[in-house]
Amino acid sequence: MPKNRIRNLISKNQHICGLLLAVVLVFSACAPRVQYQEGLSQFRPKIRTLQKKILANPQDAQAIADLGVIYFAVEDYRRAEGYLRNAFEKQPDDPRIAFYTGLAYEFRGKDEIAIAIHSRYRNYPESSPFRKMMAGRYQRLFLSKLRRDIDSLVVLEKELSKDRIVRSAVAVFPFKYAGIDTQYAHLGYGLSEMISIDLAKVSVLRVLERVRLQALSEELEFAQTSLVEQATAPRTGLLLGAGKVISGALDVREQKELHVDVIASDVRQDYAARTASKSDALNQFYRLEKSIVFGILDQMGIELTQEEQEEILRVPTRNLQAFLMFCRGLQQESNGLYIAAFRSFQQATQIDPAFQTAAEKLEITNAASEMRSRREDVLAATMRRERFLRASKEALVEARLRHLGENIGAAILLGIDKRKTVEEASSAGLEDLPEPPPPPVRESVTSGRK
Fold it and tell me: Which of 222-226, 333-337, 388-392 has the lowest mean pLDDT?
């Protein structure tokens, strides 16, 4: 084949390939838009209705939110965010609007705003399904952000200075259990939780969240030691920006005597640590826990108001079995065993229905399914609940079927039907068709040669 012809063929093929590529690119660019328009078409009647309602009443937050939900359904997240933000500003006390607004910010990559909105879940009625979903999204986003922050701090650890340490920030880590009776193995988690709750009642203190401490423990691989050793306090305090780090160990000895060793490290003052040992009967757990709290506050030189002192002295439950079940749930939650933790918190509330702290943890772990779910799955599940979306789709199908039925006879001219039945045709003298002729007889090869 001549070289010129080969060159021409290659050039021609390149030209064809280029044209095909251009066509593919054009169609691929148009495909999402076509799909978007097709998806939007099923909601156009509803969109027009909502737009009329908004024109009549620009303060109609529900109509504005419904428009946002529709654009969510067709994956136009930019418009969804705009409508839902507007609706949320007008009616922030509506859990449905709040949930979708937080989700819109999440889909737009604005996690900080989404966290701020979802963190308000406790402001909404417990009967609302959106409260549970908001709690789940908050937990997932908060934990993800927390782990990213911890990772960044560990990477930049050498560049961190003590200037970032806040004296009023307190970190209380789980107390290590040093006993042999396994029924009390979770008690250290409950003790640290109660100390944290009581310290948080003091207005001048900022107690760091337990999940933040857990994330740091996992990053530094200190989870098994519970950060008991004094040598770890400087590093953890610096990374967390905490001026005070509380940790320790406990044991339940003979005659059910509870013994606790407390380590309180002041990270700003050259990492000075103070230790204290306290013992009391196990059934006097809260008396011992309150003495630890007042001792920490005394070390920090904090004077309490009468109201703060009374709040700290409150006891969430006097039922030891309920509290031990609560402690077990805390440890299971820290290990990511949310279903097991849910059951433990549930049992704690069943033993003592007035145990409000356990009830709050029960609600959070009840949102574990939403916490583990991807945002796309959460959105899909939520969309299935929206009746007006289903109604719009069903109305579209009915309209298309009706339109199809109307067009079936559009090309038929009505008139007198002169067609006859088989019986009428036979009586009209029409004969049966003749039998087909037989196939031709082919002569043999030998007869042909003669």
Answer: 222-226
Q: What is the pLDDT of residues 310-320, one digit of tens each?
A: 999 999 999 99
Structure confidence by residue, pLDDT tens digits, 133-164? 898 889 888 888 888 888 888 787 777 877 88
Of 216, 223, 225, which is closest to residue 157 (Cα–Cα)? 216
- Residues 250, 260 contacting (CB under 8 angstroms): yes
- Threshold 0.90, pTM exceeds: no
- Token pair belonging to 150: 């911890």
Q: What is d(CA 137, CA 382) in angstroms, rounded to the nearest whole number?
A: 13
